[in-house]
Amino acid sequence: MAVAVSGGADSLCLCLLVDGWARARGGEVSALIVDHGLRPTAAAEARQVADWLRARRIDRHVLRWTGAKPATGIQAAAREARYRLLADWCRAAGVLHLLLAHHLHDQAETVALRQERQSGADGLAGMAAVREVAGLRLLRPLLGVPKARLRASLDALAQPWLEDPSNLDLSFARGRLRRSAGLDVPRLARLAREYAGPRAENDARVASWLALNARIDPAGFVTLAGGALASTPPDVRRRAIQQILMTVGGNRYPPRGARLDRLIEQLRAGLASGRTLAGCRILPWQGGLLICREPQRSAEVTALRPGAPVLWDGRFRLELNGAAPALVVRALGRGDTRALGQVGRTLPAPVRPSLPSLWRGEQLVAVPHLGIVLPPLADHAIVGVRFNPASPLAGAPFHADGDSHQETVCFGPPRAYVRGCCGSLPERWRWAGFAARIR
After folding, report:
1. Are residues 151 and 14 in the same domain?
2. Pairwise CA distance, residues 317 & 389, whole Å
3. What average pLDDT does the segment 338-343 reach?
4. Is residue 271 included in any domain, yes or no?
5. Of 84, 285, 317, 357, which one's alpha carbon is 20 to 30 angstroms from that of 311?
6. What is the dihedral of CA 187, 188, 189, 193, to 10 degrees?
7. What's the CA gap between 168 and 180, in Å, rounded?
8. Residues facing residue 3 across a β-bridge
């Protein structure tokens, strides 16, 4: 287990609590301290937090956000960089669970801000106690705990903490909210719990519908049988299509409501030709629907080096073994697809241009999902390639209160799931991906 530790009272208290919990069970926790480099004192503060944790014999790692910082949208950029650094460390270390210190007041602020933005029912359920992202499970066990209890716990342990002045910065929405005196925490927390129940029920209904009607392929596309949407309740239909688009498109956030509603109306009426939305193509296919990545949106080019896994295009995780040469990952493209013809595994033609392909300079050396391996890579095995989207098709059940969420941790899918998800890949790739998933 790992804990994101900023040095503030909330995350520092969570780290000490989790450390005690893990030690009592023969385990250990790693504290991850992100140095954003946004203030002159940032490096010294990271060292101070690391020193506190060293004194308590807690494993700790300082992760630094390097490079140019944006002139605008700095808070969102810093949050994105923080989660990227944390997730990359956890994946490299084989850590499945990353704990975050959001507490009752954070939950209340989230609901208040979403009320202000007129969010729908899902938004008013607040933050989830368990959230799954690519290769990682985020846990928020303190969502039902008041901030005052965390500070009192640190006082009882004689543990100092840092105060971040940006938390009260009036240029940010949360800072303005914290400076105001009108935040009714009990009412907002109650509201989150009221909306959490229906959201959890809807999540379960959508997951069941997807399990019955959606076929997800390890090449990163989804097919729906003909007529699957016709008799589906509107709320389930909308959420299911939204989730498929997020998974196939490698997105963390859903498409805008109006565009999604227009697409669903077109699907109900019957598609005569293809549509695009959220980086996906939605096409009539063999009496049903095919949802695949839009080739023009797969523009990412990523260096791939032996022993250094990468997440490409928000969808695929690739890794080379130690004997393979350094390569580049990019989308196969329409021209390369035509040049290859129908060599390799048969896949729907619209899917092929957005597949990850491996290149050495201008030379194509592999298309793993088609089973194509060319010189100079032919003598080297690809250790792993698997569909690992930023948003899972059906994740953990929603819970808004960390004190009441059920035990949902599952360390490995049943064997039938492995066959269905990865069975069409060569054996050496299939089990490398499965081993990483249950590590």
Report:
1. yes
2. 9
3. 72
4. yes
5. 285
6. 100
7. 10
8. 31, 99
Whether the Cβ atoms of residue 330 and residue 272 lie closer than 8 Å to each other: no
> Domain total for the chain?
3
The CA-atom distances, in angstroms, between 254 and each of 51, 123, 209 are: 41, 12, 18
Residue 8, number of CB atoms within 10 A of its CB: 17
The phi, psi pair for 115, rounded to 5°, reads -60, -45
- pTM exceeds 0.90 for this model: no
Task: Please state, in angstroms and rounded to a whole number, the distance separating the CA atoms of residues 310 and 314.
Answer: 10
Weakest-pLDDT range from 234-238, 332-336, 342-346: 342-346
Structural domain harbouring 304 = 298-388+409-438
pLDDT of residue 385: 85
Q: Smallest Cα–Cα separation from 92: which of 2, 217, 222? A: 2
Instruction: State yes or no: pLDDT of 179 exceeds 80.
Output: no
Q: Please tell me whether residues 249 and 169 are part of one structural domain.
A: no
Same domain, 25 and 166: yes
Residue 202 lies in a domain: no
**φ, ψ (nearest 5 deg) of residue 275:** -130, 165
Residue 114 to residue 191: CA distance in whole angstroms: 12
Contact 10, 101 (CB under 8 A): yes
Residue 176 pLDDT > 80: no
Do residues 56 and 162 share a domain? yes
Same domain as 423, residue 348: yes
DSSP string, 96-129: -EEE----HHHHHHHHHHHHHTT--HHHHT-S-S
Name which of 272, 385, 286 is nearest 327 in CA terms: 385
Domain endpoint, select from 293, 319, 353: 293
CATH at 137: 3.40.50.620
List residues bridging with 385 in a β-sheet: 318
